[in-house]
Every structure is written in C-alpha cells, then in structure tokens.
Amino acid sequence: MALNLERGRRREEKPVQKSGDRPRANATVKMDHVRVIISDLDGTLANDERAIFSGTLARLEKCIGEGYAFAVATARPLAYLHGVFPSHLFDRIWKICHNGAQLFSPDSRVMFKHEIGRSDQVALLDALGGEYTSLSWYSGDTWYTDEFFSDGLRQAYGIPSHYPAPIVGDAACLRSQSVEKILVVGAPFPDALAEVFKDRLSIHKSRSEDLLMISSGVASKATAGEAMLSYLGYSWNQTAVIGDDMNDASLFSLAAVSFATAEAPTALKKLATFRVGSNNDPSMFVGVLAAIGGSCDASEV
C-alpha cells in the first residue's frame, strides 16, 4: 500500500542514525529492526469519531501475529479501551494509560504506576482556588467528578456511553485519595499553572485548550514505555512510535522511528522521522504498519 510520507526533522541524538550523519530528504530509513510499536489513540489510531477502522484492526492483528509487540499509549483509562478494541485484540496488546501513569500487560495486570503525591494534590487545589468549571479525577480505574461535570462535558470529551458513570465527589474528597490523573475544565492561566508545578506535575493541555490533564511529574508515556521494553527485553532502538500531540513527544525523543500525523503540532512534526496523513484516512495507519519491518523512502512511498 502506498503511504504518503514526508521527511521530518530528526533530533541528532536519535539512535536510528549517528550524529552528523542524518539521511538526506530522499534517503531510505530501514525499519526491519523494529519489534515494538507504540501508538497514541485519539487523533492517531482512532479517527475523529473515536473509532478504529476495521482495516486498521485487521492489519494490527496481522502485525501481532507476526511477532510484533504493540502498545496503545493514551490519556484514557483502561476501562475506556474495552469499548475501542475487540476482546480478542484487547487481550494481546499492552496498554499505557493516563499518559503513562499506568502500564498494563496484555492480560491487564498492573505492571507499573505513578500516583500524584498527596502534597502536590493539595498544592494544586490551593493554586486553583476553586476557579475552574469542573474537576474530575481517577483513583485506580474509578472515575470521580464534582457535581458540575455535565452530560454535555461528558460528550464533548469523548466519554462513551459504555463507560461507567462517575462517582460524585468534591475537592475535599480528592484531597484524601490516591490518584493517577486529575482533569480540570476551564482552569484560569493554565500556562502559569504549568510553570509553577513544572518540577512536580505533568500538566498537558488538550487541543480544546480548556481541558488540563494532570499526572505525576515522573509519569510520561516514555517512562511507562521504558518499563514495558525492559520487561520484553527490547530497546528504544527496536521501537517505532506514532502520535499526534505533544504528550507523545517523550516517545518521539527516544524511539528509533517516529511518525507524526497530519494534525500534529509543528513542534512534534519536527521531532518525527516521518510525517504521515490524517487519522481520518482509513489507509494511513494501515500504511504505517505495512511500512514497519521494511524500509521507507520519503520520495517513493
């Protein structure tokens, strides 16, 4: 299958080539060393309807059957993924959830997790001072929200009907729990908040800009990916990643080969080995999977 690839600007320290020896724009990148594939979900593996094309699922199953390890890396919780992947495929993939705060094996055992420190939760709530539209959080795979999280917000942020209804709580409840992720809708001055907590929390703005996804400062898709690779006995030099947003940047900075979708921000595209098409194109992800294991030439595929 023809895959429309555009060469991105590679960071020189990436392992697929030596510093000072980056390939020319029409050079070939071999990918037959890749044994692990890590993909973002929303905006990458899934289309804008938050579904995965049947052809993509079929090709993914073929890759796993050929011996590739596959992980989906997402801000979503584990329970969400049950409605995205068919059960026979769900039980064959690794799951990096909450932007790297949790790692689950194919049989859904918890292999790795990072909780937000209790003192950081309290400091965050004090900094917010109640000046937000809605607050929700995850403790394990249980979803809690305040009373202001409406059905409209549920729909806007893609929480499907199959997902269990949240338990209603308040900020006092949050202060007393161990949590992996906090979601804040309508927080004022998100950039200033990220700056204040830059050494303690990971704060990522969604594309909608008014949703903040907050996790432990040591949690990232890359740290969870590192734990998975260690367990499997593979390295980043044997890993390909696909993503569409800056919460994928930690993966792009380490993997041998990376693909940024058409919708990705410029900063992520500059980190990528290749720039590919839209997540709404049924052939895009199939083409990426077909290319992995062979070689890609930006001028030919």
Percent in helix: 25-40%
Beta-strand fraction estimate: 15-25%
The shape is: globular
- The secondary structure category is alpha/beta
Describe this entry's structure for a reader.
The chain is an alpha/beta fold. The chain is 26% helix and 23% strand. The protein has eleven helices and 17 strands. The chain has a nine-stranded mixed beta sheet with strand order 1-16-15-14-3-4-5-6-7, sandwiched between helices. A six-stranded mixed beta sheet has the order 10-9-8-11-13-12, covered by helices on one side. α1 runs parallel beside α11 (284-291). The protein is globular. The model is unreliable at 9-27 and 297-301 (pLDDT under 50).
Structure characteristics:
9-stranded mixed beta sheet, 11 helices, disordered C terminus, 6-stranded mixed beta sheet, 301 residues, alpha/beta, 26% helix
Short overview:
With 301 residues, the chain is of the alpha/beta class. It has 11 helices and 17 strands.
SSE topology:
Blueprint: E1 6-7, E2 28-30, E3 36-40, H1 54-65, E4 69-73, H2 78-81, H3 87-90, E5 94-97, E6 102-104, E7 110-113, H4 118-128, E8 134-139, E9 142-145, H5 151-156, E10 167-168, H6 171-175, E11 181-185, H7 190-196, E12 201-205, E13 211-216, H8 221-232, E14 239-243, H9 249-252, E15 257-260, H10 266-271, E16 274-275, H11 284-291, E17 295-297
